[in-house]
Design goal:
The structure is a single chain. By secondary structure, this protein is of the alpha/beta class. It has 4 domains: 50 residues, no CATH class; 115 residues, no CATH class; 119 residues, NAD(P)-binding Rossmann-like Domain (Rossmann fold), CATH 3.40.50.720; 188 residues, no CATH class. The chain contains 20 helices and 11 strands. The strands form 3 sheets. It has a 7-stranded mixed beta sheet with strand order 3-2-1-4-5-7-6. A two-stranded antiparallel sheet has the order 8-9. The chain has a two-stranded parallel sheet with strand order 10-11. Strand 4, helix 12 and strand 5 form a beta-alpha-beta unit. Helix 6 packs antiparallel against helix 7 and helix 8 runs antiparallel to helix 9. The longest helix has 34 residues.
């Protein structure tokens, strides 16, 4: 009995307890029963394992290709954007009535092209945050009817009235189909957002009450398509921390964009300076991100009708400057075409001016001066010489020489009419400059003005120009540098080819009517 109950007998093998006749007779039955169960437990487990049906052995490696294919499919679907689908669908639907209507192929192709351009605003289509065909319906119908009217006028000019009536019947069917198509594409976009296939990783700037409300709404309503990865703010106690992780302060925005892979910025209320915000959202890391801004007085309705909204909070889309991509190629092609044409047309003026400068001032018709171009690069700017500087230092550091007595009658006339700037057409052809852009300045003054005037250095984000928005707004010669910087940055933020054309047309007016020019 001591071999079972006393710890000192724990090392005695169990078989002696069961097999010794002296001990076995006096041991309690329950002890022998427990011991025997313990000894036979392995055999019972073995029997149970033998009776258990065989388990199917699954090769996990065989499942990996299917999972990889699924991930690839999701990634491909996630890369599809509305601008890739909606304009194509619109174009195809406008052409659809040709399947059952009289064949007016040229007219319908013209209608499809014009309608697609008008529906996209001439740029890349962007789906609204708050998806609703009813919200867009007035704009869609107006633009489609504009396209129908334009094509109808062209048909009426070329063909008979009966052709116009046939086209109008076909066009009305196309308009109805486009509206139905927009309902379908809108539902597909909403489905993609809810399922998480179509979403935009977003960094929230600000952590105030409005930002907190946005975080709450976007967490509950995935149909807006924005996934907030966190927020940044310069404050200490932020309400938004109850909903989102904090990614740092405003100065950490670049790092937050890179680490989260975000492609959208949502600016709300918070503790940060607006001037600092303007700088950080235009850095290299943020320049391609879509910028959404809550208006400062967001309780009021906008008259433009372009505001989107998240819940009851209006959202404004801020356009990114077209500094790269197809827009720059279009601008460059426009520059080359105009520069070549101007050099050919103005060649008699150039030759006559060269002779006048040579007669008045002797050799050295072309004056070369180092200027600062895009991204701070230096180049030689060409001008007709209107006076001869005393030395190179004066050329690079003297600000205004309009009243200098060394400027002769020819030079004064050249400055007054801006003819002295015409050799810069060659700078444009070479790619040093563009037709329209911020005027180039000398390195000495660029360094000085960049430290004295707000956002002056931001002018060099784009190519410098022969004329600019500041110049056609009366800021020529010895005028405010701060105002010039503001006008130049406004031009950069709002660039379009039509804006360039308007500035060129206004330049002629400035040249013909401006009589108090002060040149540098």
């Amino acid at each position: 009995m001591t071999g079972v109950l006393e710890p000192t007998a724990a090392g005695v093998p169990p078989k002696f307890l069961a097999g010794d006749p002296k001990i076995g007779g006096s041991a309690p039955d329950n002890v022998r029963f427990l011991d025997s169960r313990r000894v036979q437990a392995p055999s019972l487990r073995a029997n149970n394992d033998a009776a258990r049906p065989p388990v199917l052995d699954v090769d996990t490696n065989a499942l990996r290709p299917a999972a990889d294919h699924e991930r690839v499919a999701v990634r491909l679907l996630s890369s599809i954007r509305a601008w890739m689908v909606v304009p194509v669908v619109d174009f195809a639907i406008v052409m659809a009535p040709l399947a059952w209507r009289p064949p007016q192929i040229n007219a319908m192709v013209m209608l499809a092209v014009l309608a697609t351009l008008l529906l996209t605003g001439g740029g890349r289509y962007i789906s609204r945050l708050h998806l609703s065909v009813l919200d867009e319906l007035p704009s869609i119908v107006t633009r489609l009817l504009t396209a129908v009217a334009a094509v109808s006028a062209a048909i009426l000019y070329v063909h008979e009235k009966s052709e116009v009536l046939t086209f109008l019947e076909t066009a009305c069917q196309a308009v109805a189909l486009v509206i139905i198509g927009r309902v379908i594409t809108t539902r597909l976009i909403a489905l993609g957002r809810r399922s998480g296939v179509s979403k935009h990783h977003t960094v929230l700037i600000g952590g105030g009450p409005v930002a907190t409300e946005l975080a709450r709404i976007l967490a509950q309503h995935t149909e807006y398509g924005l996934k907030l990865d966190g927020f940044i703010d310069d404050g200490d106690h932020i309400p938004a921390e109850a909903y989102l992780p904090r990614l740092g302060r405003l100065a950490d925005l670049d790092r937050a964009m890179v680490t989260t892979g975000a492609d959208t910025l949502l600016v709300a209320d918070g503790n940060f300076e607006e001037r600092a915000l303007t700088d950080v959202v235009r850095t290299v890391a943020c320049q391609n991100a879509e910028l959404l801004v809550v208006p400062r007085m967001h309780h009021f309705h906008t008259l433009t009708g372009t505001a989107d909204h998240i819940g009851s909070i209006p959202i404004m889309r801020v356009r990114n400057p077209n500094l790269h991509g197809p827009a720059t190629l279009i601008k460059r092609a426009f520059d080359i075409a105009v520069a070549v044409m101007a050099l050919l047309i103005l060649s008699p003026v150039l030759i006559g001016t060269a002779l006048a400068v040579r007669i008045e001032g002797g050799p050295g018709i072309i004056f070369r001066q180092v200027r600062v171009g895009r991204d701070g690069k230096h180049f030689e700017l060409l001008k007709f010489r209107s006076m001869r500087p005393a030395n190179e230092l004066e050329s690079q550091t003297k600000w205004c020489v309009a009243a200098d007595n060394r400027v002769g009658p020819v030079g004064r006339f050249l400055r007054c009419t801006s003819i002295d700037e015409l050799p810069q057409l060659w700078n444009i052809f070479r790619g040093d400059m563009t037709l329209v852009g911020p005027r180039p300045e000398r390195p000495h003054f660029v360094e000085q003005f960049s430290t004295e005037f707000d956002r002056y250095a931001h002018r060099h984000r784009v190519q410098v120009g022969l004329t600019g928005f500041a110049q056609v707004s009366g800021l020529r010669g010895d005028t405010s540098i701060a105002d010039r910087a503001r006008y130049d940055n406004f031009y950069i933020e709002n660039w379009s080819l039509w804006l360039d054309i308007k500035i060129i047309l206004r330049t002629f007016r400035e040249v013909f009517f401006y009589r108090e020019r002060s040149a540098k």
